[in-house]
Amino acid sequence: MVASETHSVDLSFNPRLESVTAVRRFLEVHLGKLMRDAKLTSRMAVTVHELLENAAKYSTGGGSRLHVEVDPAMPRTLSISVANNADPRHLPELRATIDELSSAGDPFDVYQRFLLRAATRDEGSGLGLARICVEAQMDVSLETSDQGICVKAVATLPTESTK
Amino acid sequence: MTATALEPIDESEFRAQGQFEDNRLSVYLWGNADHRGTTLFDTFLAAADRESVAAGVKEVVVDFRQLMFMNSACLKSLVTWLRRVQERPPERQYAIRFLQEPEAHWQVRSFSALIAFGRGVLTVE
């Protein structure tokens, strides 16, 4: 791996639930070899999987764009985004979820709240973004435009993480 | 004992089986638990719980060491099960023990949250 080289994968496709695992596995193999960091690769895999499942479930068509970028410069960063068209009716809940996670004093405590809600929910788990924030330790943000939404997850690694 | 084995899940990428022995139910999971297995996993865990109560088991051991990945929907299946057991009177509860693969980093992270959630019922080793 060239020390200063940025690696990225850009996929524009119409994600189906059936294809999410295959894309995750491809990235685990491809970027995992470049990152040479099993924990970071695992964090990326969880993030990609959950973002793509959300896109497959809630996209209103027109395709999605997955962008994964690994910048090995110090501080190292891992950036993952999924952009797609979305039903505006889902936006308030999405925004509220990200706000709740972003403003949490203790992410572990807020995750317990999400787990408790999940245990009593009838539809969906509501855990995907919480998992990205707490388990994968990514900062999640939401951008909206006329073209749709983009959910972005970023991890900054100031020091070499444990292999 | 009402059963010696649970109805297994036998999909191409996800398998689960459970075996009753003495006062214990041993559950083994393999593969990739994603959206394709969610409904099956819900049904499997509901049966595991129902038959464990009927059989009076003291402990359910779930072996995750061959499970490569689990999505958030299947994670929800686990928390729903944990909650169901927690909410019972103590005399109708059983202990739950997860066997994790230390090299599967997602398990280490997910289970550290589940240990706190399943306090009093769940242990992980």
Structure explained in plain terms:
The complex is a heterodimer of chains A (163) and B (125). The radius of gyration of chain A is 16 Å and the shape is globular. Chain A starts with 6 loop residues before the first strand and ends in a 6-residue tail after the last strand. Chain A has helices at 17-35, 38-58, 91-102, 107-120, 128-135, and strands at residues 7-13, 59-71, 76-86, 139-145, 148-157. A five-stranded antiparallel sheet of chain A has the order 1-2-3-5-4. Chain A has 163 residues and is of the alpha+beta class. The relative contact order of chain A is 0.18. Chain B has a single domain (9-124), classed as STAS domain (Transcription Regulator spoIIAA, 2-Layer Sandwich). Helices cover 37% and strands 32% of the residues of chain B. Chain B is globular.
Q: Could you give a short account of the major beta sheet of chain A?
A: 5 strands, antiparallel
The ordered string of helix (H) and strand (E) elements of chain B is EEEHEHEHE
Going across the biggest sheet of chain B, name each strand in turn.
Answer: 1-2-3-4-5-6
Query: Separation of termini of chain A?
Result: 16 Å
Contiguous runs where pLDDT drops below 50 for at least 5 residues of chain A: none
What is the CA-based Rg of chain A, rounded?
Answer: 16 Å
Total strands of chain A: 5
The CATH architecture of chain B: 2-Layer Sandwich
CATH topology call of chain A: Heat Shock Protein 90
Shape of chain B: globular
How many helices of chain B? 3
How large, in whole angstroms, is the Cα Rg of chain B? Answer: 13 Å
Query: Judging by the overall fold, what is the CATH architecture of chain A?
Result: 2-Layer Sandwich
Number of domains of chain B: 1
Main structural class of chain A: alpha+beta
CATH-assigned homologous superfamily of chain A? Histidine kinase-like ATPase, C-terminal domain
